[in-house]
Design brief:
Strand order of the largest sheet: 5-4-3-6-7-9-8
Oligomer: single chain
Structural class: alpha/beta
Number of helices: 20
Strand content: 15-25%
Length: 470
């Protein structure tokens, strides 16, 4: 069974995506000169095609004063989202089982954020038009939209595999998951014969190997929808312009910085092109991306240019893990050991605005502009991340640590489910991932059942910095 070409007899994988955080999307907007949405009080957030609602629930838990809505056509997804919210004690989220074209009849409020992850490339033109109608009707002026999709030219070499998978699945018996498993087995056997296509496209061999390492649910929802289409970024921007949206940046943070994407020769060739549109398409060829996480704003920027220096940043890892080298799309970038040492010390104290971080790090000398650039590059590389709030850790040696109720519930959820749970953090404005083994270690340490080892002590210190242990 399918709705607008989307498979509905097999559930999607249950995943949390940190890029959907309001704090994260605000950072992208501010970085690229658009006004962030106020998130320190009440606001409205809608996720279209929310799956099991992991991102919707965690974001709602991280912003308890806001109103969150998740919409999905699959009843198992909606039921799972409601159970997840109940398990974490999140009460400010509502789930709707419906098609996008019927959502407007539910009388939802005007939204500050609308997000779609894993939807736009996998539904038909009618459903994409419904998405645009929802955005046009519900997104406030200045509101922020997130749309992710498979993109070209990165999919060009691999796209034919999808056609072959669909054809191999057609005569197989069972539900979509069973037919997909049979098709993948047949595709694997066929690829091992190395027909000419695979010889000409070595990446296709690697792709088939990767498919075999993924859950069947993922393969179903990636490839088996009747509608499946990768897009050029400029064409998606054209479509969404119909809903009053303009592209401002990427939630894959490194993609906002050409210096971290392009080698010097490619950058020079792209800069020589005549129009912004040509430069965008050429950049897509230079980076050869397969997946985009685009951020849009409704309407034009008005008033003073937002100051990214007001954005809050922090570390969701132990400061000792902040290294002097970081990986970005074009390779590795290096920072001075002295700078990184000072960043570690700063991040050990909690989250801070970029402006305050620059002030602190430049106190003993150093160029403020270079320090700011390096901090922003650390965020782009994922070493530091956008936070929702500034927060200083109370480091008193005699202070008894206690978990927040949200952390307690997330720990129990991870242990009961036997898989990673993202604990909503109001400081991060995002989810902090906790694996079952980590959950058990934290629970035992906080209860006094076990003396924490070094790794657990580091984890607990990080939980304190993100406000989950107080």
């Amino acid at each position: 069974m399918a709705a607008h070409g989307y498979v509905t007899d097999t559930s999607y994988t249950n995943q949390f995506f940190r890029e959907l955080s309001p704090a994260w999307l605000n950072y992208v907007a501010a970085l690229n000169g658009a006004a962030p949405r106020p998130i320190d009080g009440a606001f409205v957030y809608l996720e279209l095609g929310c799956g099991f609602g992991a991102s919707t629930v965690v974001n709602a838990g991280a912003f308890p004063r806001a109103e969150f809505h998740g919409c999905d056509v699959i009843s198992a997804h909606v039921d799972g989202g409601r159970r997840h919210a109940a398990a974490l004690g999140v009460t400010n989220v509502t789930f709707h089982q419906d098609d996008f074209d019927r959502l407007l009849a539910r009388g939802l409020p005007a939204c500050d954020f609308i997000a779609l992850h894993g939807v736009y490339s996998w539904v038909d033109a009618e459903a994409r038009d419904a998405v645009r109608r929802v955005i046009r009707a519900l997104l406030k002026p200045g509101g922020i939209a997130y749309v992710s999709y498979n993109c070209l030219p990165g999919w060009a070499g691999e796209a034919p595999l999808r056609k072959l998978l669909v054809e191999l699945a057609a005569p197989a018996g069972g539900d979509t998951a069973q037919r997909t498993a049979a098709a993948l087995a047949a595709l694997t056997t066929f690829s091992q014969a190395r027909p000419r296509y695979f010889k000409a496209n070595p990446s296709a061999v690697t792709a088939v190997e990767a498919y075999n390492k993924r859950d069947t649910q993922y393969i179903v929802h990636e490839f088996m929808n009747a509608a499946w289409q990768p897009f050029y970024a400029v064409d998606v921007a054209d479509e969404l312009a119909e809903a009053g949206l303009r592209y401002v940046g990427s939630a894959t943070l490194a993609e906002n910085h050409p210096a971290l994407l392009l080698d010097a020769e490619s950058a020079k060739a792209i800069a020589a092109l005549a129009t912004d549109r040509q430069r965008q398409v050429a950049t897509d060829f230079a980076t050869n991306q397969r997946f985009r996480r685009d951020v849009f704003v409704r309407g034009e920027t008005s008033g003073a240019r937002p100051d990214v220096f007001a954005a809050v940043i922090g570390s969701a890892r132990a400061p000792s893990a902040i290294l002097a080298r970081a990986t970005v799309p074009r390779g590795e970038i290096a920072f001075s050991e002295t700078f990184i040492r000072d960043v570690r010390a700063l991040m050990a104290r909690g989250s801070t605005t970029i402006a305050d971080a620059v002030s602190s790090l430049s106190r003993h000398g150093g160029d403020a502009d270079e320090i700011a650039r390096n901090l922003i590059f650390l965020v782009a590389a994922g070493v530091l991340i956008p936070f929702a709030k500034t927060y200083a850790v109370d480091g008193g040696p005699s202070r008894r640590l206690r978990p927040t109720p949200m952390l307690e519930r997330a720990v129990e959820y991870a242990l009961a489910a036997g898989r990673m749970c993202s604990a909503p953090s109001e400081v991060m404005g995002n989810g902090f991932p906790i694996e079952p083994a980590e959950a058990r270690a934290v629970r035992d340490a906080l209860s006094g059942k076990a003396s924490p080892d070094a790794a657990t002590r580091e984890l607990m210190a990080t939980l304190a910095r993100v406000g989950l242990i107080v």
